[in-house]
Structure formats: structure tokens, C-alpha cells
């Protein structure tokens, strides 16, 4: 445009107007370039925030997963302990009680129920006491209290009647 004004083919105010318009266009272009760079910067910032959010969420999920696994392991351990206790209560404990009862030395305690003219009377006896016809031999265990507490049900004495044909 300056060459046209120098040759006299265009007017100077027109040149100034065109130069000003060119400067405005150039300024707007720089503003647009700046806006584009800011938008790209904001996009990068947003992408970084998304990545940070995903990482935070992943950490939180992994932490929750680890806590859930620890709780599950603890529950499995408690369950196994309960199974072991039930097994011991149902299987091992009765065997131990039966073994303890078998291992205890049970000494029989003898007594005789003998008929006399006053009625039946109980006489302490040993395994060498002489029996008479009609005697009833009662055999008790000196461990009856221990067995009664270890095993349910009553402990009864055994009775044996000596026939009248034996003896005298």
C-alpha cells in the first residue's frame, strides 16, 4: 500500500486505515493464539486432574480390597477355630473322658443284705466274706461320685442273690 501512496495511486488516510485494520487482525490473531494456548493449558490441567482422580480412586479401591481380604482371612480363621472347637467338643473330649474313666482304678465296695429275725440288714463285706443262703451281695464303686459327675445318668449298684441251696 505504501508504494501505491508513493506513486499517488492511493490516498494516505486509506493506507492508515488498512494498516490499522491489519494491526487489529494481527492483534486478534495473537489473542486467539493466546486463548488457544490457555485452553490447551486448561485441558492439560483437566487431564492431570482426571489422572490424579483415577490414581486416588485406584488407591482407595486397593486399600478397601486389602481391608476386605484381611477381614475375610480373620473370619476364615475364626471359622476354622470354631470348627476345631466343635470337633474337639464332639469327638476328642468324649474320648478323653472315656479314657480317663477307663484309666481310673475302680475298687468295688461290697456289702451284704442278710435276712435276720429283725428284718433285712446291711453288712459291710470284703471279697473274702463268707456268704450264707439268701444273702444279697451289693457291689458299689468307690468312684461312683467321679463317674456320676463325668457321665450323665445314675450309677447303680449291682446285686447278686446267693441261692438258698448253696452254703449250709
From TrEMBL:
Keywords: Coiled coil. It holds the Pfam family HH_AprE. Residues 36-85 form a coiled coil. Residues 144-168 are annotated as: Disordered. It comes from the Bacteria. The keyword Coiled coil applies. InterPro entries: HH_AprE-like. Residues 2-83 form the AprE-like long alpha-helical hairpin domain. This is AprE-like long alpha-helical hairpin domain-containing protein. It comes from Methylobacterium trifolii.
Amino acid at each position: 500500500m505504501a508504494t501505491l501512496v508513493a506513486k499517488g495511486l492511493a490516498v494516505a488516510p486509506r493506507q492508515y486505515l488498512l494498516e490499522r485494520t491489519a494491526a487489529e487482525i494481527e492483534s486478534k490473531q495473537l489473542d486467539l493464539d493466546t486463548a488457544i494456548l490457555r485452553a490447551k493449558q486448561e485441558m492439560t490441567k483437566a487431564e492431570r486432574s482426571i489422572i490424579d482422580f483415577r490414581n486416588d480412586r485406584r488407591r482407595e479401591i486397593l486399600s478397601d480390597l486389602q481391608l476386605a481380604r484381611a477381614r475375610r482371612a480373620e473370619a476364615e480363621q475364626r471359622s476354622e477355630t470354631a470348627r476345631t472347637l466343635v470337633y474337639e467338643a464332639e469327638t476328642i473330649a468324649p474320648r478323653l473322658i472315656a479314657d480317663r474313666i477307663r484309666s481310673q482304678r475302680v475298687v468295688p465296695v461290697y456289702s451284704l443284705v442278710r435276712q435276720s429275725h429283725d428284718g433285712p440288714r446291711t453288712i459291710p463285706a470284703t471279697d473274702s466274706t463268707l456268704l450264707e443262703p439268701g444273702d444279697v451281695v451289693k457291689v458299689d464303686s468307690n468312684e461312683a461320685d467321679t463317674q456320676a459327675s463325668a457321665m450323665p445318668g445314675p450309677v447303680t449298684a449291682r446285686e447278686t442273690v446267693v441261692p438258698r441251696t448253696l452254703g449250709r
